[in-house]
Write a structure and sequence with these properties.
Elements (H helix, E strand, L loop, with lengths): L5 E5 L3 H13 L3 E5 L2 H10 L6 E5 L7 H11 L5 E5 L4 H9 L4 E4 L4 H24 L6 E4 L2 E4 L4 E4 L2 E3 L3 H12 L7 H7 L11 H13 L9 E4 L3 E4 L9
Parallel strand pairs: 1-2, 1-3, 3-4, 4-5
Antiparallel strand pairs: 6-7, 7-8, 8-9, 10-11
Length: 245
């Protein structure tokens, strides 16, 4: 019998935590629910490698969900984090992604959408873990333009200046690097980077590609590496044609 995926729910509203746990239990997952950040971090530390997904509220007592997510990312670059929050402002979502969340879902949420996001994140995480174990030849370091990237340590420098990047930005960048030169449809990015349905209407790819351009392009308004191919998708070019010999 296959081992059940272990989901850690971090939610201080007991009735909501019980409801989430009940529905995840019904789907066959193994669920642990805690009401504060320190308890969640203890479980992640004590059960290292045994937690497959964290579902995280932002408004927690004592230690905010943002701080919890930052601590998770410091300890584990790959553990998926789904933020659930009543906060709906764009800056709240942006901050959530900045501290390393994979997805952000606002309360109240549709149960079917919630379960779909959980399933997709777990599937993508399992696939990446397997690929990481099997493919020792996969890209770990890469250079283009003035940039040097180490995907294992998350160290990025442009020229001699270190650059801080979020987990999601690094995942997107790595996907571009591993598929350089190929036109990648938006649907493919949503499914393989965000673990979202490909037909979902969202501007997330555009927003994150703008962030990559701002970080890596000499002139973000005239991109040479991260290209938008109209009505087709996006393409990453490590060496623009005028630089190739």
């Amino acid at each position: 019998m296959a081992t059940k995926e272990h989901i850690l729910v971090v939610e201080d509203e007991e009735h909501l935590a019980l409801g989430i746990k009940y529905n995840l239990d019904a789907e066959g997952y193994r669920v642990t629910a805690v009401g504060d950040g320190p308890a969640a971090l203890r479980i992640i530390e004590e059960q290292r490698g045994e937690v497959d997904l964290v579902i995280l509220d932002l408004m927690l007592p004592g230690m905010s969900g943002y701080a919890v997510c930052e601590a998770i990312r410091a300890a584990d670059k790959d553990l998926p984090v789904l933020i659930l929050s009543a906060r709906t402002l764009t800056e709240d979502r942006t901050r959530g992604f900045d501290v390393g969340a994979n997805q952000y879902l606002t309360k109240p949420f549709d149960l079917d959408e919630f379960l779909s996001r959980v399933k997709n994140l777990l599937t993508l995480h399992s696939s990446r873990t397997q690929q990481k174990a099997e493919a020792s030849q996969s890209v770990t370091t890469f250079e283009f333009g003035d940039a040097k990237i180490n995907f294992d340590t998350f160290q990025v420098t442009i020229g001699e200046e270190p650059v801080r990047m979020t987990q999601l930005e690094m995942t997107l960048l790595r996907y571009f690097v591993e598929n350089q030169g190929r036109v990648i449809p938006r649907q493919e990015l949503l499914e393989n980077v965000w673990a979202l349905p490909g037909n979902l209407s969202t501007r997330a790819p555009d927003q994150f590609i703008r962030r990559l351009r701002k970080t890596f392009e000499p002139d973000p308004a005239q991109p040479r590496h991260f290209l938008t191919i109209r009505d087709a998708g996006y393409r990453f070019v490590a060496e623009p044609e005028e630089e190739q010999h």
